[in-house]
Amino acid sequence: MCGVIAVSGFRDVIQDLYDGLIMLQHRGQDAAGIITYNNQFHLKKANGLVRDVFHAKSIERLRGPMGIGHVRYPTAGCSSEFEAQPFFISTPFGIGLAHNGNLTNSPELRKRLVEKDYRHLNTNSDSEILLNVFSVALRNQKPKGKLSPDDMFGAISNVFRQCKGAYSAVALVGGQGIVGFRDPHGIRPLQLGKRKFGMKEEYIIASENTAFRGLDFEFVRDINPGEAVFIDNKNRLHTKQIRKGFLNPCIFEWVYLAAPDSTIDGVNVYKARIRMGEYLAKQVKELGVKIDTVIPVPETGRPMAAGLADKLKVRYREGLIRNRYITRTFIMPGQDIRKRSLHFKLHPIELEFKNKNVLLVDDSIVRGNTSKKIVALVREAGAKKVYFASTAPPIICPDPYGIDLPTKEELIASNLSPKEISKHMGADWVFYGKIEDLHKAVQYGNKDIKKFSEGCFTCKYPTPEVDAKLLKSLGYSRNKSRDHFVHDLDDDATKMMTLV
User: Fold this and answer.
1) Can you tell me whether residue 440 is helix, strand or coil?
2) 3-state DSSP: the chain helix, strand, coil percent, rounded to 5?
3) How far apart are alpha carbons 28 and 73 in whole angstroms?
4) How many other β-carbons are positioned within 10 Å of the β-carbon of residue 301?
5) 132 Cβ contact list (under 8 Å, min separation 6)
6) Which helix (H) or strand (E) segment is 111 a member of?
7) CA distances from 312 to 116, 243, 302, 357 (A)
8) Which domains does the chain have, with CATH numbers?
9) Helical H segments across 381-454, by residue range
10) CA neighbor of 390 nearest in space, from 414, 359, 417
């Protein structure tokens, strides 16, 4: 769940890239980077938020009419500055690449690059592997001085043949142009926009169109699964459907990952979340419990809670106020400090809880650690009954495509029934959304979406190489690379940490 952006125009694009990354900051808060080109490459990247990585001096030197950017969450607890993106390689032409997703066959690709192509890989990132696969494929096209669209699309076709898993990527090729491509299953989003510059057009490629409007770009369309988009050095747009695509978008984009004002694959994120809440209301009605107030767990739970409250005809209230300046409580050493930090992070408005039957609404439950603490917080504020609703179904399996959900053994719903989870969390009852309702909530906006990447809910995955053996291997690698304190991650931190 990283964020990527590329802009190609007729003037310096650094301001567009910087502002665009600010609008994609929700997709990654561990590191940020930008690379631009004006006959030479200019790269700046580091750990931290966009506003902390880039300053006036660095923005001044990032010159050029085309560039790409990236915001990142770390791979399984590893937040080395060396793994910040974009990655750069000097041959052929010089290439910078930014990637959202996760390659599921990265070990075999790494082995081939090292042993056959004599490449040195400097990090553990699969994004560096993707860059090198693309680099070799581009060199093998043997372009004669200048890349043609056929050269570029031929290289991407080779990437599609070799790489498995999820990858939406943008790349800047020195003196040649910008390319964006989306894997044949379309698991991660990638979108195209344009704006007028006199009689000409400038282009943007980004993970979400939430970045378009603020930059005065018009949304053109989603890049299709198996498609590549090439903007050459004359700013001419070329597109090609390279592989037959099968749209299996990650349903967790609408549940949690994407910004509410984005529209992905034709489905508005905010409206999908409203519908998720509306469908969940049926289960609450069937149980016949008395609810005085519906209160969201901010931020993602808000539209879901609004839809649920409307259907129940129960008042909606903001009873939990999030301190936006407290982040990543899981890194604080010691359980006492982490518990104390939750009180800093969420402030209950006691009048909304005292002597009331409260229904808390969140997007999902991962380990249940934070949900348990929130239930305790609400009881301390005086709630009489506390019910908890997750609009997502029980998360019972990991996701190998770019969401660093825990191993199966760490997921609370893979081990406990809803009744047992209610007891563990200290709630009077826990409601879960149904997978068929999740489908309906998204497909209402686009009936052409027939299947989803939803393995975290069903343990069924769209790409055939994902099996129990691969998941076990990924889980082992993930746990091996984590720092010792990460084993007590809260749900927010768990959902946000991603493989990139």
Assistant:
1) helix
2) 40, 25, 40
3) 5
4) 25
5) 89, 113, 117, 119, 121
6) helix 106-115
7) 62, 46, 15, 14
8) 3-246 (3.60.20.10), 267-453+470-496 (3.40.50.2020)
9) 412-415, 418-425, 435-443
10) 359
Which two three-digit tokens encode residue 132?
Answer: 């090198």
User: In one letter, which amino acid is 118?
Assistant: Y
* CB-based contact 44:101 (threshold 8 Å): no
Residues in the chain: 500
Matching residue, tokens 């990952």? 257
State the DSSP H helix or E strand holding residue 294, giving kind and residue range, or none if neither.
Answer: strand 293-296
For residue 283, pLDDT beyond 80: yes
SS3 state at 218: strand
What is the rounded CA–CA span in Å between residue 53 and residue 45?
7
**Do 237 and 221 touch, CB atoms closer than 8 A?**
no
Tell me how far apart the alpha carbons of residues 246 and 417 are, in angstroms, rounded to a whole number: 34
Rounded CA separation 364/347 (Å): 20
Token pair belonging to 76: 């399984």
Q: Are 102 and 165 in contact (CB under 8 A)?
A: yes
Cα separation, 81 vs 72, in Å, equals: 11
Q: Mean of the pLDDT values across residues 203-216? A: 97
Q: What pLDDT, on a 0 to 100 scale, did the predictor assign at position 72?
A: 93
d(CA 493, CA 479): 15
d(CA 66, CA 120): 28
* Placement of tokens 């053109």 in the chain: 220
- Catalytic residue IDs: 2
Q: What is the pLDDT of residues 22-46, one digit of tens each?
A: 999 999 999 999 999 999 999 999 9
Q: What is the identity of the amino acid at 210?
A: T
List helix spans (H) across 163-218: 210-214
Assess contact for 181 and 228: CB atoms under 8 A. yes
The first and second tokens of residue 235, run together, are 């700013």
- Inform me whether the pLDDT recorded for 492 exceeds 60: no
**Residue 321 dihedral angles phi and psi, to the nearest 5°:** -105, 125
Distance CA 171, CA 98 (A): 6
Going by the DSSP 8-state scheme, the letter that residue 210 receives in this structure is H
Question: Do residues 179 and 170 make contact, with C-beta atoms less than 8 angstroms apart?
Answer: yes
Paired tokens of 155: 């290289």
How far is residue 400's CA from residue 288's CA, in Å, rounded to a whole number? 38
Within the chain, how many helices (H) and strands (E) appear? Answer: 18, 22
Cα(130)–Cα(166) distance, integer angstroms: 11
pLDDT 10s digits, 43-59: 999 999 999 999 999 99
The SS3 of residue 16 is helix
Neighbours of 338 (CB within 10 A): 20
- pTM, entire model: 0.92
